[in-house]
Amino acid sequence: MKVVQFTVPVVYQGSICVQEDILPSFYSNYHRHKEIQLTYILKGRGTFMIGNFTHSFEEDEIYIVDADEPHMFKTGEDIKDGIHAIHIFFDYEHFKSFLDFPEFDDVKYFLEHINVSKKLDAEHAVALKDKFVQINTSAGIDRLLSFVKLINFLSKKVDQWTSLYTGIPQKKFSDAEGLRINEIFQYTFQHFGDKISLEDIAAVAHMTPHAFCKYFKKHTRKTYVTFLNEIRIERACKMLIDESSESVSNIAFKTGFNNVVNFNRVFKKITKHSPSEYVQEHRMRD
């Protein structure tokens, strides 16, 4: 049986480590690492989970994951032909002495003020695809210089980044707690379309329902019902766009809601739109 680690070691390749994933799916366990991570999604889509925050991800988006920030990319259920991404990892503490020259002031300031994880939308990120590919295919000093040029470019786009602030000020919980939270998340992603009772999810965490409620709220700053509804509505949003022939009532039942009225209420609370308004707004953007 494969051992799931919460704190994942990154294979050493020098100052900059690069990993290209061409796989059936993304690594979908909730995990962290001490390095800052830059990810370009070349192919695939799904749900990005960071801290207690869930967000849909699409092709040609860039993500910055801050050091020690727990996260995972969950491949969408409709992805049948695999995923492709380039991940760049670096430990800023080992890297910052290289940036003491005044010419690197903008790069150094950007890296020192990441603070929270961020996303760059496809309309701004696609111009950087070749830079990620170049870093992936180069080595040694060429890779290092290409990376510095990339960060310098990113530092000029600060107004185009979307903050993925999770609301959780303390990222340093133990590996044991991280593994337990991963089990909770994995069960939720696998069963969100079913009726999940408090007793069911508490049993996954090996806790009493009362202890589980306190534990989950402490580590995520939200109730489990709120988290579950966010997962369900995030999936419903995809279905509304991708499966336009599906009725709202069918989507509601497929995502775990027992009636349409409750679905519409929760949908509007989370997205600030009704399902029909959400579809209309998405079509206008396209």
Automatic annotation (TrEMBL):
A GO molecular function for this record?
A: sequence-specific DNA binding
Q: Any idea where the HTH araC/xylS-type domain is?
A: 182-281
User: In its keyword annotation, does this UniProt entry include DNA-binding?
Assistant: yes
Give the InterPro entries listed for this entry: AraC-bd, Homeodomain-like_sf, HTH_AraC, HTH_AraC-typ_CS, RmlC-like_jellyroll, RmlC_Cupin_sf
The UniProt keyword set, sorted, is: DNA-binding, Transcription, Transcription regulation
> Quick check: keyword Cytoplasm in the entry?
no
Q: Can you name this protein? A: AraC family transcriptional regulator
